[in-house]
């Protein structure tokens, strides 16, 4: 497999997937985020999201300030991810 990561392309050894330490760190950080589950958005940001939605007439959350986000992974096969991934995929159909 030939891979380029901000450098000239080069052949990866069969036992390695990532071409550099930075790529490996990104992968580990993403995997940790998937494993950690939902994370609450700070209230300063959730207030901004709520205000923008209300301005556009999308939704009114009222006093709701517990907006969460999470990174999902279909490859991880976490049972709780599958219905969420299915609903997310439906948005793009």
Automatic annotation (TrEMBL):
<keyword id="KW-0238">DNA-binding</keyword>
<keyword id="KW-0067">ATP-binding</keyword>
<dbReference type="GO" id="GO:0000977">
    <property type="term" value="F:RNA polymerase II transcription regulatory region sequence-specific DNA binding"/>
</dbReference>
<keyword id="KW-0547">Nucleotide-binding</keyword>
<protein>
    <submittedName>
        <fullName>Chromodomain-helicase-DNA-binding protein</fullName>
    </submittedName>
</protein>
<dbReference type="GO" id="GO:0042393">
    <property type="term" value="F:histone binding"/>
</dbReference>
<keyword id="KW-0347">Helicase</keyword>
<dbReference type="GO" id="GO:0003682">
    <property type="term" value="F:chromatin binding"/>
</dbReference>
<dbReference type="GO" id="GO:0045944">
    <property type="term" value="P:positive regulation of transcription by RNA polymerase II"/>
</dbReference>
<dbReference type="GO" id="GO:0004386">
    <property type="term" value="F:helicase activity"/>
</dbReference>
<dbReference type="GO" id="GO:0005634">
    <property type="term" value="C:nucleus"/>
</dbReference>
<keyword id="KW-0378">Hydrolase</keyword>
């Amino acid at each position: 497999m030939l891979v380029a990561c901000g450098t000239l392309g080069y052949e990866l050894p069969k036992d390695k997937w990532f071409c550099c330490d930075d790529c490996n760190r990104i992968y580990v950080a993403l995997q940790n985020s998937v494993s950690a589950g939902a994370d609450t958005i700070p209230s300063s940001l959730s207030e901004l999201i709520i205000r923008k939605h209300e301005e556009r007439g999308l939704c009114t959350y009222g006093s709701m300030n517990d907006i969460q986000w999470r990174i999902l992974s279909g490859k991880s096969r976490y049972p709780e991810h599958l219905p969420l991934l299915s609903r997310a995929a439906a948005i793009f159909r």
